[in-house]
Design goal:
Strand 1 and strand 2 form a beta hairpin. The protein is an alpha+beta fold and about 70 residues long. The two termini are about 20 Å apart. A three-stranded antiparallel β-sheet has the order 1-2-3, covered by helices on one side. The protein has one helix and three strands; from the N terminus they run E-E-E-H.
Length: about 70
């Protein structure tokens, strides 16, 4: 199993807690009362978005390929 890295923009919420959005997966958005809770919730949001993408690809007989990108 390969582990991918995802980048999250973390913003303090005016009403308290934090919100976050994954830069690589625009649909992966979540919030949490603490940064630790936000990280847990973002991990779940990323997993759900990836599952949704895979299901859609399978239903449409699309292929998903991974591209290595050097930085």
């Amino acid at each position: 199993m390969t582990t991918n890295k995802y980048h999250i923009i973390v913003n303090p919420s005016p009403e308290g807690g934090y919100s976050g959005q994954c830069l690589e997966l625009a649909g992966a958005i979540s919030e949490g009362d603490t940064e630790e809770e936000l990280i847990k919730n973002m991990t779940e949001a990323i997993q759900l978005v990836l599952e949704s993408i895979e299901e859609r690809a399978k239903a449409n007989k699309e292929r998903i390929i991974e591209l290595p990108v050097a930085r």
